[in-house]
Amino acid sequence: MITRMAPINQVRPFERFNKLMEDLWTETPMFLNPWTPPVDIRETPREFIFTFELPGVNEEDVEIELRHDNVLWVRGKREMLEEFKKEEFLRVERTYGTFERAFTLFGKVIPEEILATFKDGLLTILVPKVAMPSPKRVAIHRG
Known about the structure:
Elements: H1 7-24, E1 39-43, E2 47-53, E3 62-66, E4 71-78, H2 82-86, E5 97-104, E6 115-119, E7 122-128
Antiparallel strand pairs: 1-2, 2-7, 3-4, 4-5, 6-7
């Protein structure tokens, strides 16, 4: 069997290895990388429900905004405590810094009735929807 020589195929494994080494030995500590808190999103006939997991975030460090284009923005930050900065860690897996999430809401919502609660590290945002009219059967008149 004869195969065509493709020098590029011999270089690709080295590219992956170099990328792996860069990721492993990066100069940026993990706690300075941006983080994205997980969120669960549910929709009922009456509302959208967002539940963010925000352990270690202070309520006053979270900002919620519904823009005119029906985009819900949630921003915030989680900072490393000062006493932790002074210690020498063997490993840091938690991330710190700012986050920003945006969600487009389909359908009409009632901005004045949006409710946000923060308890035990969970931010819950209830976004009420405008009730859709019930289907109405239309009679056809013979004319």
